[in-house]
Amino acid sequence: MNQVNSQNKSWQQKLNIYVLEAKTEFLKAFRMPAFTIPSLIFPLMFYVFFGLIFNRNGMGGQMPTYLLATYGVFGIMGPALFGFGVGVAIEKDQGWLALKQCSPMPISAYFFARIFTAMQFALIIVLSLFIVGGVFGGVQLTTGQWAATLLVMIIGTLPFCALGLWMGLALTGQSAPAVVNLIYLPMAFLSGLWIPVQLFPVVLQNGAWALPPFHLAQLVLKIQDNDLGHPWLIHVLVLAGMTLLFLFLAIRAFKRISDAK
Amino acid sequence: MKPTIFTLIFITILTGILFMLPTPQNSSSSEITSEDEKTPNNNNSFKLTNVTVFDGNTWHEDSELLVLEGQIVNNVKNPDQLPIIDGKNGFVIPGLIDAHTHTWGNALQEALSFGVTTELDMFSELSFGQQARLSRDLYKRTSQADFYSAGTLITSTGGHGTKYGFKIPTIDGPEDAEQFVLDRIEEGSDYIKIVYHHKPEYYRLTAISKETLIAVIAATQKHNKLAVVHITDHQSATEAVEAGANGLVHTFGDRIISEDLLEAMKARQVFIIPTLSVIASMAKSKHSLELAADKNLSQRLSSASKNTLKPFANLPKRPLTLANAIKNTRKMYDQGITILAGTDAGNPGTAHGISMHGELELLSQAGLSPTEVLQAAGKLTTERFSLGNRGSLGSGAKADFLMLSADPRIDIKNTRKITSIWKNGFLVEPPKTPKTKEVELPKSGLFSDFNEESLISSFETIFQPTSDQMMQGNSTASVNWTAAACDGGGLHVKGEIKAGFPYAWSGVFLPFSENMDQVLNLKSIRSLEFDVSGDSGTYQLMIFTLNNMQPVQLPFEINEGCNKISFLISDHPVVDWSLVTGMGWVADRNRLKSSLASFAFKLDNVVINHE
User: Average pLDDT, stretch B134-157?
Assistant: First the structure.
């Protein structure tokens, strides 16, 4: 039904739907303090504690720069995983998702709005980390490096949106917050976002390869030349592969829901 | 329309923020000269011309150094594109390697600021080393020296090393040796350091047995690591060498070395790190204080390091121990035994970086030629400890080096005349001095006219006695108010100059702030004046500047009658007049003769003039 509807609309009307949905989605997320405050404050707080106060002179003075990258990745993961994982799970349980499916809005607008929201949060988090790191942490990068870091982090939300989407569709609204937290924090730690991965025992270092944040962190660290030295293409391919895998799993879960109805 | 405008504004703000974020200083020009102090150094590829280079083996007169991405190279594809740095007839030596340190806090930064580009730690907390090791094989800009470490040393329960405030594992007997060594290697130890003493108990410490020593050394060497042994006397050294140690990390001064031990060390190719610096401190020598007072070094010395240069307290003076230690080093050198430079920095009487220049001097007193001394602090250490491409400046070496303004072959103390330090091909910037508060100049220009019975200056600080007792000298001083100075009230300064500290002084001192952490900016004034009368002779006006322990001394004459002394600021460019923290009016060592030792003078009307 919605296919017929959307084909009848002009592209401006369609764009308008996307913009409206994105705008309302962002507003909704932003007005939920339980979502906004941890998302925006935690990465910044950890960065100030571990990057600026305790460890400033670590790694030959590179610690604030290094942790800017890893806490950035930690920061952008949050809104993506929770926005999709928890948000979609709850809305699915409440029947809101089904309602959206029935509405004349293309369902892609629903997902697009959520991706857009995750990216906007990512932008705010990364920029605030930049400002704190630049002003108080003595972090110095070329303008190109700053811009590339921002860009990679924003695009880097996509794998986590996909992972969140799969979890949101596969989990019930009640279990989602617990499961997402259970995955989010250990995954961040084991990917070397809090403590440089080089300091891990070898087993954990190898294990990190299975985790998407590790690859995104390595990509961002490559920009500032603090990575482990593997080619960037490997990390990009692994991330792309993981994104596709999560999407595939999400589509399967989506079909299962649709079939059940 | 509206969304478009919002988008544009958004992008503008975003771009604005990105451009306002701090960036490293860029160098767009291809020619860099080292005379510009603010040389933009964003590049670790360059050609250093017009220098004499010691590459670790030989000296190359009027030579040049090619550095490509932090490494020394023989030639490059397009040398014309490299920035050229004029070395101005400087002398380039490889970055120094301190083969015996104990490292924590800012030690590696301090080390680098004196040209020590690699430290071999001989016991420190594990967590420090695990992090500090990470960057040693990189070619990035860094503010710290590279780091190798023994990690946790091997000692007995209650032995040397167990009483530094953090718990370490200890070994009970030879049967544990294999596992104990494996644990250390697993923790990341680059080599194994063992504490040994031939008596099971000494100075309220215990020691491992000889059997344990032998077993630990064997296990270490089985796993292809170096076993180095801490000893403090001749007998322990003999037993450590017999047990198969690769090296000794101290020499000893309890007696002159026996021919047997010399022969054994030579036959087994045992190297020694004499650490004469710490032995000098335990012998209560003035070596480290002279080091702190060396003008070429003091400007780089942090106040924290300055404090650690004070020798061991509560130990008797034992000049013989140091003399013996130097003699023993000389005998080992004569036998062709490899001698490596190490300071034991981290102990009282030593400090990271600066003490290395003292150790080089002590090694040259032990008979090594300046070139050999430099090899003991570079190439030889690299060979013995397998440190890779450091310690020399041949092709492929890390571009860690010092540029000196004078030839160290003429005097090894010329290593202290450092023009610049380069690490991984990057110029090491002197540490930024934090912004300091300025003290306000008194409006009248008067520090004090002493017309009231008070020793308080217009900065609300006190004119106080000062003498070399603070450097453990013996001179004395007293300061009192008097009603009968040049014009009414003034200061009556009395004192006695006595031998003790090499740069004896005694007199009156005025800090401009309580902790001397605030500065008085005298750059814009014309002159500084005061009235003096008293015992005739030459005295010194001492000007203290921020972070400089050594004041600049400006001589002036006192005659019996009242004299107005005036110093034109512009006459004394050596003083950093913008950062003055205090001033002193003192007699110095040219009153050492007993007929002149006692002195007295009166000081009045200390004032600065703008016109």
Answer: 91
Q: How far is CA B349 from CA B18, B235, B284, B309, in A?
A: 48, 26, 9, 4
| Cβ neighbours of A62 in B, within 8 Å | 135, 140, 142
Contact indicator for B298, B277 with CB cutoff of 8 Å: no
Which stretch of DSSP H or E encloses residue B110? helix B107-113
Residues B531 and B563: beta-carbon distance below 8 Å? yes
Can you name the CATH fold of B94-388?
TIM Barrel (3.20.20)
Handedness of CA B376, B323, B268, B207 (dihedral sign): negative
Q: Count structural domains, chain A.
A: 1
Interface test with B, best of A131, A135, A143, A149 (most B CBs within 10 A): A143
Write the residue in B17, B22, B140 that is nearest to A140 by C-beta.
B22
- Residue A203's domain comprises 2-260
Residue B235's H or E segment, with its range, is helix B234-242
To which H or E segment does residue A213 belong? helix A212-223
pLDDT at B30 over 50: no
B438-609 belongs to which CATH class? mainly beta
Q: What angle do CA A11, A17, A18 make, to 5 degrees?
A: 90
What are the residue ranges spanned by the domains of chain B? 94-388, 438-609
Instruction: Classify B107 as helix, strand or coil.
Output: helix
Of B23, B130, B142, the CB nearest to A143: B23
pLDDT digits (tens, 9 = 90+) for A191-243: 988 888 888 888 888 889 999 999 999 999 988 878 887 888 999 999 999 99
ipTM over 0.90: no
CA gap A64, B560 in Å, rounded: 63
Tokens of A129: 């980390």
